[in-house]
């Protein structure tokens, strides 16, 4: 795979010493803008430098791809824990919405460097003397730079909320270096403008040799990102009425305002949904569009793990990494491999991002995405697979060591420490375009509305994604929640598990709290195993969860996934070469003999589950819910020992601004949301 980060980048002085501490930026070159942008080759080198910046640990090298996924109804940042969840200066605490201003692990420094450098490249190309005379080269480069600038500020707005935004790069007189927060509505307004301009300059992938790879920004991704930004611009978000008292935002009907903090969305949200519908429709309907769904969901992940580009162009854009150089995708989440096995002394996969039995059982048993996305199976130090039975530590299987390239495996087997996987991070897939189109058009009109540019209805777009999941001709393609928006919300969960999409989707829908609570309470009912439990659009009876799971190996090392009875007990032990494990309903039972001073799964599993994500709202009270559980009183007695609620703000999903960035802002910045 061609790795564009290997291209030597030359970037110029536009970022000055006086503002380095404020946004923690620095200049990597002494070349002037006039020198860089006088020739297209130097301008291209500057743009290539932006791609290299994206591989930083605090951008897509680790944080945005892995660590900051946090708690949602499909992901958790590591196994649920009665200690990690409330550590305010760690990614674990922040993932449970308990970060604070002293949390350096959630600092925006590198993203602002990326934003500042991208802005400087945009300004340099706009002011280039060859912008019009060499428009065929320079305008696509401008489109790339505008897209990457928009991407940087988009991530800042999503993760920190209202934040400083600059339309132009820093000036030598420092007149525009220090500024206060722009409200996110203003930021999104400018990003939509920039992305609309960017997509007009860019070719589709493959239209020219220069843009023949999804490791470069092309029209497909620019349009897709524009649609994504527009949906966030029209969606719900947390707001500070004291900082922006003149906002005309519509307030959320069910999330209570606290201390001047409320959840709102712009009154013209439909305008943004129309933008999303328009650009996804144009992409879907264009005869020049080279992107298509890969017929095999598994093949997407086999190819990206193996360092290959997808032959169907499923992926609209991939952040390019270099094996052994950068990128932690796979090593920090994925199919678990124990150290000391045939794969070497170092493990693979891990628990930085995992999932739960709730998400696993949300899938239809015929959905081919389930066993690609999630796995209870891992590879042990005894050189064969084993079955995990932990219901809140189900691994994401999209990244698997046996799909990695031979070159990586050779490196891994001899590694004495963690090595960079070089697995590209997929920022957008084509299925996202179908589902954004389905969402936007259905909310503007109805599920059977057809946009003339796309030629298909919102319902057909949703069913196109489901067709791959279940196979052509399956009756399940058309069997989904009758509330079409709920169907889209569910489909996005099943399609994008572990891809750092779900939490932010739930934020913009105003559903983050509701969906996390649905997950937590359903897990507790699954442990209790005495009453029906609703998981997404399905209802399970206690007997639907087996007490014993049987399995067999397909060879000496690997388990036959089709052999596991995930749905109910078998009539009898099959014997022979079949093996078995006790499933979570058995592990969650109260022992016959209980020793004083010890904790057991029947109380601690619900406690760990209910503590997850409890920094999101001002307060929590589970007493009424726990009164319905068999051992609710014991669980409540244990639970009350732990902190729940941030005490000041409902829906507090944004990160705090780091204390040093506040200190160096010359009084322009302060934290909101009770941080």
From TrEMBL:
* GO cellular component terms attached to this protein's record: cell outer membrane
Q: Which UniProt keywords apply?
A: Cell outer membrane, Membrane, Signal
Q: Where in the cell is it found?
A: Cell outer membrane
- Where does the signal sequence lie? none
The organism's superkingdom is given as Bacteria
**InterPro entries given in the database record:** SusD-like_N (IPR033985), SusD_RagB_dom (IPR012944), TPR-like_helical_dom_sf (IPR011990)
Q: Looking at the Swiss-Prot or TrEMBL record, what is one Pfam family this protein matches?
A: SusD_RagB
What are the residue boundaries of the RagB/SusD domain, all occurrences included?
Answer: 367-547
The UniProt similarity line reads:
Belongs to the SusD family.
Identification of the protein by name: RagB/SusD family nutrient uptake outer membrane protein
Species of origin: Sphingobacterium haloxyli
